[in-house]
Amino acid sequence: MGIDDNQVSRRLRGEKLFERPIDISMYMPTKDAARLEWGTWPIIAFEGTLASMRLLLRYEVPHRFEEHTNRLIRHLADSLGDLGLKVTTPLDGHAAILTFEYSDPYGLAEFLGRNGIVVSPRPGTIRVSPHGYNTVDEIEKFIEALRVYIRARA
Known about the structure:
Layout: H1 7-12, H2 43-58, H3 61-82, E1 98-101, H4 105-114, E2 120-122, E3 125-128, H5 136-153
Antiparallel strand pairs: 1-3, 2-3
Helix pairs in contact: 3-5
């Protein structure tokens, strides 16, 4: 990035990135602090990320993500309530995170981990973070594993 003609600058100017090679024999340091930067930015990674973001927006993923994760969180909260567990995350805002109280969060997390379910134990609570790639069936699997664990300790 320390040279005046680079892929990031070309991208910002709207030029095609790889239409012409960068001529290192015409090395010209930038006129700003970028001249102190060392190395090359991963322009291919940036282009891939930009293309991914455009695709996600094209299919309205942000809207669908919120709707989907809200449905998962609501189902999870209702199921935990049915098991007599106290949800500690406020449910009036959107967050794809839910915590609930549990007396042995580390033991539960270890049991769930052995069953292919990843949660984050915290002192006195368990944090569950369903995301856009999770399904209702996976929430059901979690609830059933939790039910088994609770029964085994009753």
